[in-house]
Design a protein that fits this description.
about 25% helix, 8 strands, alpha+beta, 5-stranded antiparallel beta sheet, 3-stranded antiparallel beta sheet, elongated
């Protein structure tokens, strides 16, 4: 029977984010379906117009999801039975914008969104503009790591490494992301302007890992 050794190498990197991904959500509820459609259209248009004023192109304000649901109120009637009463139609529209990781620009975006009558909520993620570059570097690090492990194991066991029989590696998309802020609403004083707001944060590097598993025969 052929003797083999199986080694998993791990690549590690600390990546400095250079891109902000901001996901914002607007929602409302109306009794009539056509009223809801009008409201969703006007709310979406208002948000896009606000972002256009500070330099975003409308085509780059992407929809992540758009959902419409029927809402009910549930309660117990006088006979102690659960009853559902129609409340209205609701929508939630999630949109995404991306821009350079810049505290001044982030403050400007948040200040601008605070002026919307649609009162959007949002989440902020820091990521990188070219994740594939880091995936290649991680793979290189993982290969160097499993080579070192294999040599140590072979020497400690008194055997020699032969040919590589198989390499197991996942080519799935590498997601490099950090979300340092809670999903929340931000409030700004009415008598100040956008130039007064710079989000004073220093975002830490994002730690990412990847693995490669290799099987050698041994002599």
């Amino acid at each position: 029977m052929e003797r083999t050794i199986r080694v998993t190498g791990k690549g590690k990197l600390a990546v400095k984010p250079d891109l902000i991904e901001l996901t914002l959500s607007i929602k409302d509820i109306k009794k009539e379906y056509d009223e809801l459609l009008k409201r969703s259209s006007s709310a979406t248009n208002e948000v896009k117009e606000l972002l256009e004023k500070i330099g975003f192109e409308r085509k780059n304000i992407k929809t992540k999801s758009f959902d419409i649901n029927i809402e009910y109120d549930s309660y117990r009637d006088k006979n102690d039975k659960w009853v559902e009463e129609f409340k209205g139609y609701s929508f939630i529209h999630k949109m995404k914008i991306e821009f350079e990781a810049n505290n001044k620009m982030l403050g400007r975006v948040l200040y601008t969104l605070s002026k919307s009558t649609s009162y959007p909520s949002f989440s902020i993620s820091y990521t990188v503009s070219n994740p594939e570059k880091y995936k290649n570097k991680l793979l290189e690090n993982a290969i160097n790591n499993f080579k070192e492990k294999a040599i140590v194991l072979a020497n400690a066991s008194g055997v020699k490494l032969g040919n590589i029989l198989s390499i197991d590696y996942s080519w799935s998309e590498l997601r490099i992301s950090s979300s340092p802020f809670e999903n929340k609403k931000w409030f700004f004083e009415e008598d100040n302007d956008e130039s007064d707001y710079v989000i004073d944060v220093e975002i830490d590097d994002i730690d990412v890992t990847d693995t490669v598993t290799v099987i050698w025969n041994i002599e």
